[in-house]
Amino acid sequence: MNTNLFGALTLIGLKVKLDRPIDRERPCCNNVCIIRPGKEPHAAELRCADCGQHRGWLSKPTTRWIEHVVTRFGAPEVITVRKAHTFQEEAPPAEPLSS
Ligand SMILES: [Zn+2]
């Protein structure tokens, strides 16, 4: 098994603040998650920092984006994720739009 997964290991244990639409509709604790090792095809997993509940998966592109942020801004304590599209793959199925 190749455990060197995309450099994602550098992000393991990092806290991210979630501010996706789904996190406003159905928040969990403080919406702060810890990045955990993922399973293929996911690069990493998001777990609630407070209660440990599974909150979503991180795709490889999203993981790379977070890595980019960390690299650019020098590993801030908490990264806030607001852009829903970066988590599109991880979000639960959306309600069908009316009409
Ligand atoms: Zn929670």
Question: What is the number of domains?
Answer: 1
Question: How many individual helices?
Answer: 2
What distance lies between the first and last C-alpha atoms, to the nearest angstrom?
47 Å
Strand content: 15-25%
Which ions, cofactors or small ligands are bound in this entry? Answer: zinc ion
Shape: globular
Helix percent band: 10-25%
Q: For the CA atoms, what is the radius of gyration?
A: 13 Å
Helices and strands: which structural class?
alpha+beta
Explain the overall architecture.
The structure is a single chain. The chain is 19% helix and 24% strand. With 99 residues, the protein is of the alpha+beta class. It has one domain (2-82). The protein has a five-stranded mixed sheet with strand order 4-3-2-1-5. β3 and β4 form a beta hairpin. The chain starts with 14 loop residues before the first strand and ends in an 18-residue tail after the last strand. Mean pLDDT is 75; it is low at 1-5 and 84-94. Zinc ion (ZN) binds at residues 28-29, 48, 50-51, 53.
